[in-house]
Give the backbone structure.
Amino acid sequence: MLAVIKKEFKTYFCSPVGYVFIGLFLIMFSIFFYIDVFAYQSTNFEYIFYSGATILTFITPILTMRTIAEERKTGTEQILLTSPISITKVVLGKFIAATLIVVITELCTFMYFGILSFFGVPHITTALVTLLGFLLLAISYISFGILASSITENQIIAGVVTIGFFILTWFLPQFNSIFNNFSLINMFSKFPRGQIDIADTVTFVTFTIACILLTIIAMQRRKSVR
Amino acid sequence: MIEVKNVTKKYGKFVAVDDISFEIKEGEIVGLLGPNGAGKSTTMNMLTGFIEQTSGEIIIDGYDMLKKPKKAKKEIGYMPEGVPLYADLTVKEFVKYMAEIKGIDKKERKEKVEKIIEQTGLKDVENKLTRNLSRGYKQRVSMAGALVGEPKILILDEPTVGLDPKQITEIRKLIKELGKTHTVILSSHILSEVSQICNKVIIINKGKIVAIDTPENLESKVSSNNSVYVTVEDTENKMEQIKEKIPQIETLKLIKTNEDGTKQYEITSKEDEDLRKILFSELAKENITIFEMKKVDFSLEDAFMKLIEGGKQ
């Protein structure tokens, strides 16, 4: 599995994908940082992550849409699936590599925390809880993105399905409060207040595991229908 | 080494591979032959565990592909059709990655990767990205990927497609070389290639096995009728009467008249008998000069066409 993680991680930086993802996130994050700090005179690090979650919703597919769809299109999945490595390890490897990119991005956001420390006293525990929440949101997003990538060989379709699903879960609560529990981005909202909500944490993790399992099943099933 | 028992692959109602069975022993070089769409790639994909058969059993070196895929796959080096490669990796990185996912020990990895790069003649391009390589080199890289991990069996799907004649000879030489230490299965629709490299041929058409035999046997199977080409100078036009003189002749057919006045005939015997001896003496008696005489060799091409056409009827 380590081999897959290493190779995937490397590919993120051999192609522009990794740089585009991190760069895009930081540029937009900086804009929101500027607005928060200068327009609203706030030194609150955590609240910028509400905007951060919005950014993540739109740029996650950059990381995930090619993961499996591209292998299928170029035929390299033939190499991968005829090697003595299990599908589970392949999928987990790809998932972990994508997660590592998000972790790097999170580490980069510490510079904003540093800047704020000059002007005030930002709360480190709340910041860490926020980053934890953000990571949980990210793994849910990534796992769904990989699932979408595994059902098609067209990267564009994988990307559109991913964003479509995220936006759907985002706006569903507007129609009926029943959907509150389905909205990933809503579940994230408690973390910047410094609360680790057990129910939400469990939901994030369960959602992630479910998506990964479905991806594995989807790939396994293709063996008999391909 | 490889046992295939009553394997069928269906896509909905379409039967891609229909109840095939064969056995391949250690050290054999087997050619899988058939027209496009015959089920060659499907068969290979099942042998490598890329797809699952609808029914039947595939046993690789004692391991069932469905029940013990990890162990079975370890014995196989596979070069897929169209040589897919990771475009963002260099040759060395690719071979190393293959070594890693095949679970080769970290201590031996570097040495083995070096050895295989050397063996497949990739030393000069080892730091190039695979996307920038020519087709011939890509083929070699894919071959290197298959060879990593010292598999006992090599499965090569159309290994010479898209290469120039020089590269084809090189790849064939490499395959022959590898055949000494591996069991090799290769697919092809080029018959001369198969008769050159392989010592066993499996002919597939429309998902069914039409024949399993050595290339020589297949050739002799179709050339049961003994035919001879003769080019003669026949100034007195006696050639047409020769049929009555030699009772063994079944047909005598004028093929062409050459510019210098000589004529070429195709003569077929009734039984499996070589006519050359008798023709030589009889034609001399009739004052017909023989310029050229040649036994007609049926090629694997003819065997192939005959078998496939036979399958249609």
User: Anything to note?
Assistant: The mean pLDDT of chain A is 91. Residues 2-225 of chain A form one domain. Chain A touches chain B at residues 2-4, 6-7, 10-11, 14-15, 74-76, 78-86, 223-226 (CB under 8 Å).
